[in-house]
Structure formats: structure tokens, C-alpha cells
Amino acid sequence: MVGRKVTILGAGESGTGAALLAHAKGYEVFVSDFGKIKDSYKQELTQAGIAFEEGKHSDDKVLAASFIIKSPGISDKTDIIKKVNKKDIPVIDEIEFASRYTNAKIIAITGTNGKTTTTLLTYHLLKEAGLNVGLAGNVGASLAKQVIEDEYDYYVVELSSFQLDGTVYFKPFIGVLLNITPDHMDRYEYKLDKYADSKFQLVRNMDNGDHFIYFSDNPLIRERVEHRAIKAQLHPVSLTEPSGVRYANGEMCFADDFTVDIEGTALRGEHNAINMMAAVSAALLVGIDKENIRQSLKTFRNAPHRMEYIGTINHVNFINDSKATNVDAVKYALESFQEPLVWIAGGIDKGNDYSLIMETVNAKVKALVCLGKDNSRLRDAFHEQIISLLETNNMKDAVRSALNYAEAHDVVLLSPACASFDLFKNYEDRGEQFRQAVIELKEEFESKALKQ
């Protein structure tokens, strides 16, 4: 890369990691964050002797760079990026930068939904098999920070469309694309094709020695695979196709008559069958033993707030799926259960099309608890379908109300379909408050039982 002067925009995990790697490789580094930098990151930058600023972007310092590494959360519409583009300064992502300094094989995983689960599961399968593997991207530590020592043979990396937008030469050994459904439309001019094209940056530089695992039932993915000259070896997974890697009658079927019963794994639902088929396909490609894979699928524990069992009160199970911030994710969650559901949903609506889940809601949901400051779109969508509908802006009230609607062997499902920022810091905060409300209510019921 021409020039030895680099500006890092954004000093979170990825930005700080990129700054430390650039410094280690001899670049002159300046870090600029328009917000406040966490003390832990400031300490790392200070110890490395890297200049930084917070609460502003100083044009003279930022624009003096030969190239810029931008946090994926910074939109191209911000003033500083407009100024950068006007000066034709190259802008890349931390993942792009880090990948240039490692010879490790990268397994890169993306998709609108399911990428964290699939990334963590793939990492788990490789690690349990004894491979020397690191975890990076949107989960784990910064890839750039890990590449400074570069001690791993493999990196499993979760990638968003925003990160892929900042890639130029990035070339994974295995690329996984789980699904493409509408999300982040405001960043892509409300054009689904632009968002889909962003996801397909994953395969742009892959050649015939690389592998592309993809969910072939998704129309946007299938259409692009059929009409693009993808050089990588193709590995489709499907819920409907009779051949290839497929899921049928509760069983995942792979090559050489290798099958896995989903009931023998730690995950449930068709959406997790897709995630598992993708992860297992990646594990098989790097040579992991089939029996090792089968055993590791039993011991996997998913990240919090993703179809996470919290507890049981009066024979009613409470499930935390706070990460489900769009309709497609909620559809997967609703379809994972045979039991009647009391559904807690709501927050900041991102232009959801609730007609996509109307049939599933009609079939499975007995009551809806709307949790948000403005529940009008959710209420208007379902008030005719669901007779039992209640509105609240308090998590404790939502949990108690849900239990009141539920009967023995029902499931209370927090799967919001919306962003969390009206009532909570983020989806993790929302999920933690749900967990705490369930635990408190459970303790209250147990205490009453002891006194009787």
C-alpha cells in the first residue's frame, strides 16, 4: 500500500486493533473518534505511543493520511467521510488491513441473520478438534490486534455488510453466506440489490482453491450464484433440495452418508439447521473428523440473547431472543416452536413488513405483549389477528403480563423485531433486563410456594 501515514476513524475494538497493527508495521498512525473513547482503548493507544483525539475530527490531521481505516459503524454520509472522498483518499476496513498481514486461512461468515451463531459454532468445532484457531470480527477480539502476533493457523471471522464494503483484496479460504433479507436499508439507499451486492463482496477475490458455502433456498443468493462468475468451489446447503447438504425430517445430511440428528445437538429450529449445516460444511472442508463434529455439536453453547433459555415458571418456558431485531429473524424464532407462544415484541420499528410473519403469528401466537414507547405499527398490524394484546413500556410488566397470558407448557418468547434504543441501551441490555425480570419473578413464585 502506497504511503506510510494512516488515519484510523473510530477507536472501538476494530479501530484500536487496526491502530496497534499499523503501528507495529511501522506506519505513522493517528486515531480520531467523534465520540468518547473507552478508557481501556485510550490506555492501549497511549502505551503504544499512538496519537489520538476524541470528541471531534480535526480535518488537517485526518486528511493528511495516505489512506484511512474506517470503523464499519461510520456512515459514508458523515461530513468527515465526504471530505475524505473529495480528496480521493482510499478508505478500507480493519478486516481488509489485517488480512494483508497474515498467511492464516480465514473462514469468513456473513448473512443478515445467524452469522454470530454460525461463527461461534464454526470456531467451537475447529477448537474442539484441536486446531490452532482464532475468533475475530464482530465477535472475539479485533482481527488486526490478533494479527500483530499472528499465532493462529485459522481465523473464524464474522463479517457485516458494512465491513465487506471496506474490503478490496480480502480473500477468505472459506466464505459462508447464510441469507440475505432486508436490513440496514438506510445505508443502501433503500435498495435491496445494493445490500445484496455488498454481501457478495465476500466472494469477489476467491479462486478455485477456495470454498463458498451458501444457503441455496434464498432467492437473492441463488440468483446471484447463477449469474455471477464465481471461481470458488460451490457448496450449497438447503432445506428443500433433495441432493447436496440438506435438512429433512429432523436430520442434517452431508456427503459420504454422514448424518446428524438435530435433536442430538444444542440448537433447535430450521434456521439453526442452516447455521449448523454451514458450520459443519466448513469443519469438514478443513478435515475435521466426523465423530468429533458430532460430539462437539452437543457441547456447543450459543451467545446470549439468541434463542436463549432463561427459566421455567409454572411450567412456562421463557426464551430470550433479544438479538432478533428484524422480521426475518423473528420468523425463524416463531417457527422453532410447536408450543403455543406468548410473544413479547416492539421497540424502534425499522420499516418492518409484518405481513411476512402474519401466517406464522396466526398459527402460533396466542397473545402479544407490545414493549416500546410507540407500539402503533405493531399494534395496528396484529390487533385483528391476536385478541389478547397488551401494551407496556416496562420489561418487568411485560414479563408478568406474558406469564398471566400463558398456560402450562406454553412458551414466552422475547423476539422484538425492532431496535432497542427507545427503552434500552442496546439489544444486550434488553435481553439482560428480560433475564433479570424472569429470574426475579421465578424467585417470587418459588418463595410463595415455600410458604404454602
What does the secondary structure layout of this molecule look like, with pairings?
Blueprint (H helix, E strand, L loop, with lengths): L4 E5 L3 H12 L3 E6 L5 H10 L2 E4 L4 H4 L4 E4 L8 H8 L4 E2 L1 H6 L5 E6 L4 H14 L4 E5 L5 H5 L6 E5 L2 H5 L8 E4 L14 H8 L11 E5 L3 H9 L5 E6 L6 E4 L2 E3 L5 E3 L8 H16 L4 H10 L8 E6 L2 E5 L6 H9 L5 E5 L12 H7 E7 L4 H7 L5 E5 L2 H11 L5 E4 L12 H25 L1
Helix pairs in contact: 1-2, 6-11, 6-12, 16-17
Question: Which short descriptors sum up this protein?
Answer:
single chain; alpha/beta; Rossmann fold; UDP-N-acetylmuramoyl-L-alanine:D-glutamate ligase; Protein-Tyrosine Phosphatase, Chain A; six-stranded mixed sheet
Outline of this structure?
Keywords: ATP-binding, Cell cycle, Cell division, Cell shape, Cell wall biogenesis/degradation, Cytoplasm, Ligase, Nucleotide-binding, Peptidoglycan synthesis. The protein is α/β, with parallel strands linked by helices and 452 residues long.
CATH architecture tag of the largest domain:
3-Layer(aba) Sandwich
- State the distance separating the first and last CA atoms: 74 Å
CATH topology of the largest domain: UDP-N-acetylmuramoyl-L-alanine:D-glutamate ligase
Described by the principal axes of the CA atoms, the overall outline is: globular
Gyration radius (Cα, Å) is 23 Å
CATH superfamily of the largest domain: Mur-like, catalytic domain
Structural class determined from secondary elements: alpha/beta
**Helix amount, in percent?**
25-40%
Number of helices: 17
State the low-pLDDT regions, or none.
none
- Arithmetic mean pLDDT: 93
